[in-house]
Amino acid sequence: MKFAIVLLAFMAITVQAQSELTKVTKQPFGKMPNGTPVELYTLKSGQVEVRIMTYGGIVQSLKAPDRNGKDADIVLGFDSLDQYVKTGNPAYFGAIIGRFANRIAHGKFTLDGKVYTLPKNDGDNSLHGGLKGFDKVVWNAKEVKDGIELTHVSKDGDQGYPGTLSVVVRYTLQGNELRIDYSATTDKDTVLNLTNHSYFNLAGQGNGNILPEEVKIDASRYTPIDASMIPTGELAPVAGTPFDFRKLTVIGARINESNEQLHFAKGYDDNWVLDGHNGKLATAAEVYDRTTGRVLTVLTTEPGIQFYTGNFLDGTLTGKDGRVYKKHYGLTLETQHYPDSPNHPNFPSTELKPGQRFHEVTVLRFSTR
Ligand code: GLA
Fold first, then answer.
1. Mean of the per-residue pLDDT values for the chain?
2. Is residue 125 a contact partner of residue 225, using CB atoms and an 8 Å limit?
3. Consecutive H or E run containing 72
4. Atom 9 of ligand 1, residue of closest alpha carbon
5. Is 334 annotated as catalytic?
6. Strand 71-73 and strand 59-65: pairing?
7. What is the per-residue pLDDT for 311?
8. Which of 13, 28, 142, 238 is deepest in the core (most CB within 10 A)?
9. Mean pLDDT to the nearest integer, 324-352
10. From ligand 1's centre to the CA of 240, what distance in Å?
11. What phi and psi, each to the nearest 5 degrees, are found at residue 344?
12. Are the C-beta atoms of residues 362 and 60 closer than 8 Å to each other?
């Protein structure tokens, strides 16, 4: 009898351990125009399945269950490598962004008294690392426990940025948590701001807009922008504005209010200053879809988060399963340092020096209620 109980307990533990194990597999995902092969890795736990390709480190699909256990792909993207390459993935679906997430004003910054000039790819500004950012390179990949490790060496002067930069991005999946670890070292003083640009729609990709979904951001302040979407430098209180998401709020509730900030960005596209962030992994934001019950919780070590409501999606991109992505069909929560930090001495520094190791972590947790 005793033996049977011990045996049963052992079997239960084994079954649980197995369901917690993450399976990693890879398959070819086509070739770049120059012949470089691209792989698609699948990370599958008992709860979530995520596909990541070596081109741009792009999260190509992410399947998570609703409150009835029904899976849906909840990120925007394309079915084939060709579509990412041919369109240039102009909305940065799912990609790793570097060297510098978001905008640098007039494509210029000064470091150690030297002026650096960057390609302008967003009006007068440099956006998301320039013309060929980390979203457009084929990363080296290897399997690690529960996931993959992507590496890339960006040469001194790449897109105008100083220093040879060695970057490592690890995606690991454990149960319902996808963890992204960003590390980097440099051989010259430089600036760096890395993020992931996944667009979520918790009701399923291509399944309408995200305006009925609800968002909470743990931030009492944000960094207002000017008409060219560059921070003014001010850290403004969210209290009494449509930027107050300290309580879970329907995204569409205030998005059309007459507000200069919303008008500049055609919706939400701003950086929030996370409360009490001191470099330790802490909760930053949550998205809730009342209809399906899906919840996305974002934890990060970063001091800021860009909440963007897909304002530039306009129906010209046809994504997975032939779904047409219209305005507000996806939202991003880009954990980051504040935009244009190199030009704002009052913002947390984005400088990286030889001998230092850049390390930031973001965790995406998928649950239901
Ligand atoms: C970020 C920016 C937006 C936009 C998207 C990509 O979220 O803040 O303004 O450029 O990336 O379309």
1. 96
2. no
3. strand 71-73
4. 269
5. yes
6. antiparallel
7. 98
8. 238
9. 98
10. 25
11. -135, 90
12. no
Supply the Cα-derived Rg of the chain in whole angstroms.
Answer: 21
Looking from the CA of residue 265, the nearest atom of ligand 1 is: 9
pLDDT at 16 over 90: no
- Find, among 18, 96, 98, 82, the residue nearest to 52 by Cα: 96
Sign of the Cα torsion 170, 94, 305, 120 reads positive
SS3 253: helix
**Distance, CA of 361 to CA of 185 (rounded, Å):** 16
CA of 140 to the centre of ligand 1 (A): 26
pLDDT at residue 198, rounded to an integer:
99
Taking only the tens place, the pLDDT of each residue in 198-240 is 999 999 999 999 999 999 999 999 999 999 999 999 999 999 9
Whether the Cβ atoms of residue 80 and residue 28 lie closer than 8 Å to each other: no
Q: Is the pLDDT of residue 12 over 90?
A: no
Residue 328 annotated as catalytic: no
Say if CB 43 and CB 146 are below 8 A apart: yes
Residue 130: its pLDDT value, please? 98
pLDDT above 60: residue 19 = no
* Residue with tokens 């013309």, as numbered in its chain: 131
Cα of 102 from ligand 1 centre, angstroms: 7
CA 356 – CA 347 distance, rounded (Å): 19
